[in-house]
Design a protein that fits this description.
heterodimer, A: alpha/beta, 2 domains, seven-stranded mixed β-sheet, three-stranded antiparallel β-sheet, B: 22 helices, about 0% strand
Amino acid sequence: MKKCKIVFITLLLLLMFIPGIVLFVKKDKTFSDLENRTLSVRPTPTVTDVLSGKTESELTDFVTDQFIFRDFFMKVQTEYKKLLGAKDVGGVYFAKNGFLLDKIADNDISFDAYEKNLLKVKEFFEENGDVKSSVLLVPSPSVMLKDYLPKNATFYSDEMYYKKAMEIFGSQFVYTKDSFKETIDSEAKNGEVDKYYFKTDHHYTTYGAYLAYKLYMEYMGVTPRSIEEFGLKDTGKTFYGTLYSKAADFRTKPDEFIVPTVNESDYKVTGGKGVIYDLEAMDRKDKYSLYFGGNFGTIVIEGNNNTGRNLMIVKDSYANSLLPYMLKEYDKIVVVDPRFFTGSISTLMSENEINEVLFFYEMGNFINDTEMRRMLMMNK
Amino acid sequence: MSIDSVSLYIGIHTLGGVVMIFSSLFFLVVFLPLLLVFYILLPNKCRNVVLLIASLIFYAFGEPRYVLIMLSSILFNYIMGLLIDKGKQSKLLLVITVAGNIGVLSLFKYTDFIIGNLNNIPGVSIPLLGLALPIGISFYTFQTMSYVIDVYREKVVCQKNIIRFALYVTMFPQLIAGPIVRYADIETELSDRSLHLNDVHFGAERFIVGLAKKVLLANEFGKIYDSIVNAGQMDFLSAFLAAVAFTLQIYFDFSGYSDMAIGLGRIFGFHFMENFKYPYEAKSITEFWSRWHISLSTWFKEYVYIPLGGNRKGMRRQIINLFVVWALTGIWHGAGFNFLLWGLYYFLILVLEKFVLLKYMDKWPNVCKHIYSIVIFIFGWVIFASDKVEVFTSFMNGFFNPATGAVSNNGLYMLSTHFIIILIGIIGSTRLPIRLYEKLFKIEDGKIEEGRSVGAVIFADVFLILIFLLCVATLVGDSYNPFLYFRF
């Protein structure tokens, strides 16, 4: 009896001690690939920081972030919660066919903020009445894949959001939801329904991006090129996307990554990393950053297409995979990401002789956006 | 209410700082093992000092300035204890001591609440003090008061050794969430105790049980409650689920914390009183309160109710005394009308039971007694949880207004994805699991500590080690907040 009590106590002490010692012995990991974020590292205490509680707070974060087998424990936790019947973890639904889908309820988003965003854009369009302008909001993955959501799972009422946009913009709004839905439904019979959105990432795939391209071209009265013309090819790399980072487990399978072929030498890219495809991304966790190497304040793409069309696209990351399809349609494309842009877009427009403006966002991102509104307000 | 409901239960409001809680990885893998090694390796006569230093570090972690308040309180009560013991003017000294203690507690806990409400009167505008409530002040103030009052009553000998006295007040296992240990209960153990294998073993087991209650159950129920309440107006099913989730959260959170405190105390050789005895099994509200947060109700009984005359001065006086006790119990939990209302709610029900109901209830079948008690205490928690009027109205509309509907999608979703954990919670809040364990290993009733076979111990310990690992996994996983950290 005495022996087993000693064994229990020793084992417990070891289970507490080993992670503690490892924390202070091993070199800190600064970035978590699994979670796609920077980790807290060992703080250097100062008297002021200790007295204000800053060091203690950093120490607490450091211990959890640098914990031994952190990735493993996180996956264990997800599996345990699933075992108990959870259908969502970390704000992500476990949907059918291996899809992870962002959980956005009506209460998580603000219709008022959305309306303010729309009105600000409308105001901007009115100020630039001579430029052909429009808004395209790509439907949220969960809206398109509603049938895949767990039973009774709540999701925001997207209908009223689209209605509001049409009411404010009229013909300047490129309505995409029905077309997306139709295409996806028609392909459901061929079993290809899953190819438009990544299963583990919050983005759409290159097929989804092509759909958006096609719809926008039709809206502009231009005949879209067929998908075959773009020479889609598999990069041969698989990846776990941002949604998986929020709900990592042992069973989810990674996504494939297919992209259109782009002839870099045909284009001059200014800003960002100076390329359309940043091949280094293939060694990073975030494969989606192959497109331009991520998001940047402004990127200007020039090509010899003699179309007489100069486009400015104000966008979120959904546009990054759209742009490879747009390259041949314009002489110049100015890409503005308000999250990283600090200048005046009016100046940018006149400098680049812009004659077409597109606001291109995924619906959820547009609703939650504050940076674009800030940019437009600063523009005055 | 946030995930850490203990913090609300005992009114922790830190100004952006952190608090070292038992269910944090820092405590589990840095603080506790280091302390245990020092405590075990150093000779017995150093152990009080080790524990005192550890307790001060524990308390200072995150908000070092407030240690000064606690140290002044220790010094003040220590000196007053000595003076009262001398016997001159002792009644006056006692009054000064009690007033001083309550004064400091009120300054931090209630002043801003009172000012805030006065400011609602037109024309009144008093600036708020903006003081953060020192952690554990409600607990240690009550402990020091129990000491000086008992010295005055000559129930305990005054403590001349300041280290021992300081250790009694600061002892980290019970410092921030109880149980409220009366000085008399650990008087001898402060000066005379030793390290025993059985104590360490049983204490460690108890600690893991408490940790699991907090991490695996209470936090989960907290998420269910938050997720339903934050989703807006509740339908009947959602309101019901939220109320059940909160009921389970508060029990597992608080009793889990008490288990951890009792377990840790035991490791160091202290026997703290039991704080919870399966309160949700109670067959009346009178019984419920003899099983819920026992150290607090005992304190109020001993230091308020009985000194006021208890039931010895006639029925009218008794009702007034009960009113005082329950109003105080309510606001002890925090400065808020919900807490006051909650205290008075129990005053009404207990008076009703004492003078009318209990006679009739004798004849009720047990099932009815249980249902009656469950309905009353769940409704009590709804009042308790309603820190905002809107929360309460949302609950009431959900329960009683047919317009909100019987079931919503969200309600069904929450039910279907959480019924397993709710079931575990309900069973876990009763004696059933421990009965099963006793039956399985043929342990005599109530002899869980000394009457176990080797097989029973091994079974429990293997199970508890696995549970401990699951707690660690959950703590690691929960630390990740995607909405705060995400970078695109």
